[in-house]
Write a structure and sequence with these properties.
seven-stranded mixed sheet, Aspartate Aminotransferase, domain 1, 40% helix, 2 domains
Length: 428
């Protein structure tokens, strides 16, 4: 049996100096059950990672979808090493900024001008600020997850520290439910500056949904923002807007832009983006050159090689096989497989006497013992192999019948070697 003694010791040490022991909620003990999980990783290469206890895993998290090509991609890391010799950051802009912006404008349908940040929250917040400046309005309609800043996180259960006045300006609507967006416009007539949504996450857009959102935003004079932090450079080279043929006014990018290096982007219509000359969106490290070198190498590789097509084909096979295993093991009342092939979700339904989070905890406990790092999503990258997929599918074939028997006997909680996870907050 695998043990995680060093991980747990590191958690105890780290929590003395870092709240929660992590910089990211979704990498913390809130999402990985303590006692049965690796809590700290030491290194990664390709599609595999190694924890501080020396255990090896096939990684289906891909650093929250930020790694598109695989850990340690030679082209990306080589570009970073070359740039390191010329400087990490300089006292004036470098030509590399324009080169990456030009690549984004060439690849993304809505992109006419681009500005860079360091993470997705920078980009989404920048988009909202310039939408407010452009329209002269304050209110925002939101759908999906858009980062940690007050204007968005105030709409969730993690809203402590967000002023009520700020919370009152943002209004959630439901994905694939145009009527819910229409109600927001009706409640705040002439006051909605922006409609921001993830163009896809768990569910595919229903026929006409994205087109309807586009039409509603235009009719009501609001700026349409696609948060493509995950879908960008993953669903298609031009993002979900290219895949689904709906062009927003602005789009935000992050995770897939530089194969894990910290850079994000706001891109969109030139007249809206020109507000960046007046709106304060400025970072000392906005022009940091190692990440921009990584972005340039990543985007050039996406243009040069069939990266998206290969990841998609691998994911289609994975989804099909998971669906077959669910049917073969008679577990369709518990599991479903949803999402885009490159970012799919094993969804779990509550069962009589147990919650989906208890089931998820048991699955993670067993996955980690079998060398699979996952929390129920399949975040594929170019380095994943057929053997990696086969290893994951083998765990499903083994675990689904075991879970079926535990649920039938009512003994799932006794099979846990740790307390069950609790939800952080639900946004998808």
């Amino acid at each position: 049996m695998r043990h995680f003694d060093r991980s747990e010791a590191m958690l105890a040490r780290t929590e003395n100096v870092i709240p929660l022991g992590s910089q990211t909620f979704s990498k913390s003990r809130t999402q990985f059950p303590v006692g049965v999980s690796p809590l700290y990783l030491d290194r990664g290469k390709g599609s595999h990672v190694w924890d501080v206890d020396g255990n090896e895993y096939v990684d289906f998290i891909s650093s929250l979808c930020s790694v598109t090509l695989g850990y340690g991609d030679a082209d990306v890391d080589g570009a970073v090493r070359d740039q390191l010799d010329r400087g990490v950051i300089l006292s004036l802009p470098a030509s590399l900024e324009a080169e990456v912006a030009e690549l984004i404008c060439d690849m993304v349908p809505c992109a006419e001008k681009v500005r860079f940040g360091k993470n997705g929250s920078d980009a989404t917040s920048g988009a909202i600020r310039i939408a407010r400046a452009f329209t002269g309005r304050d209110h925002v309609a939101v759908c999906g997850y858009h980062g940690w800043q007050d204007w968005y996180i105030g709409t969730t259960a993690r809203n402590r520290g967000v002023p009520q006045a700020t919370r009152d300006l943002s209004h959630p609507f439901m994905y694939n439910d145009l009527a819910s967006l229409e109600r927001v416009f009706a409640e705040w007539p002439g006051q909605i500056a922006a409609v921001i949504l993830e163009p896809m996450n768990v569910e595919y857009p229903a026929p006409g949904f994205l087109e309807g959102v586009r039409q509603l935003a235009t009719r009501h004079g609001a700026i349409l923002v696609f948060d493509e932090t995950i879908t960008g450079f993953r669903y298609a080279n031009g993002g979900a807007q290219q895949l689904f043929g709906v062009t927003p006014d602005l789009a935000t990018f992050g995770k897939g832009l530089a194969n894990g290096y910290p850079v994000s982007a706001v891109a969109g219509r030139a007249d809206v983006m020109q507000m960046m000359e007046e709106v304060f969106f400025s970072f000392t490290f906005g022009g940091e050159l190692l990440s921009l070198a990584a972005a340039k190498a990543t985007l050039e590789k996406l243009k040069r090689e069939p990266v998206v097509a290969r990841i998609g084909a691998l994911g289609e096979g994975l989804k099909s096989s998971v669906r077959s295993i669910i049917d073969e093991t008679q577990m369709a009342h518990v599991f479903d497989i949803k999402g885009h092939p490159s970012w799919s979700f094993l969804t779990i339904a509550d069962q009589p006497g147990t919650t989906s989070f208890t089931i998820k905890t048991w699955l993670m406990q067993e996955w980690h013992q079998r060398g699979i790092l996952s929390y129920g999503t399949h975040n594929l990258n170019l380095s994943h192999s057929e053997a990696d997929i086969a290893a994951l599918l083998d765990t499903y074939r083994a675990l689904f019948p075991q879970l079926r028997d535990l649920l039938a006997a009512g003994t799932l909680i006794e099979a846990l070697r740790c307390p069950p996870l609790e939800p952080l907050f639900k946004v998808r």
